[in-house]
Amino acid sequence: MEIENKKILLHACCAVCFGYPAQFLKFLKYEVVGYFYNPNIFPEEEFLRRRKELEDFCAKYNFELHSDNYTPEDFTAIGLEDEPERGKRCDKCFELRLSKTAQKAKELNISQFTTTLTVSSHKDSEQIFNAACNLKMPDGVEFSVFDFKKNNGTKITNEIARFNNLYRQDYCGCEYSIRN
After folding, report:
1. Does any domain span residue 1?
2. In contact, 169 and 43? CB cutoff 8 Å
3. Total structural domains in the chain?
4. How far apart are CA 111 and CA 90, in angstroms?
5. How far apart are CA 11 and CA 65, in angstroms?
6. How would residue 2 be classed by pLDDT, with cut points 50, 70 and 90?
7. pLDDT at residue 91 greater than cutoff 90
8. CATH number of the domain encompassing residue 116
9. 57 confidence band (pLDDT: 50, 70, 90)
10. Is residue 75 in a domain?
11. How do beta strands 6-11 and 142-143 pair?
């Protein structure tokens, strides 16, 4: 008996972080649909570079990808410029991006979504999960908890990135993280 594929919308911040989570979910018999919504990325050239890299990766490995245009005003509207990394600004940024991903899942008629953000050793997975819990989900959509950094996920995603010669940024994405 064959297991029927389940669709899941995978929010991605970049191609590097997409590699392992997408392959892992595919291994679990999910039909992975990528989604790039990251108004926090600064400057626009960085946003475009990360999006193009993800588009190329998805094309190479046959993943469907949806992406939104650059809307930095969505991110700057949350304020909290003086908050430290992993502080309240990050909470609001996660909520913003996950909320938009939930809406996109509803629009695409996909009942579950998750995010690649948990693969990064620089991110606190519990903080991301808490942000997801704070969302008012559209009817019929739920957040699926995957901590992709577990079981060497960060190491594996970095190996996939090296194998594919992916562009590796040296900061989270927002202009405030550049300071660190």
Report:
1. no
2. no
3. 1
4. 25
5. 10
6. very low
7. yes
8. 3.40.50.620
9. very high
10. yes
11. unpaired
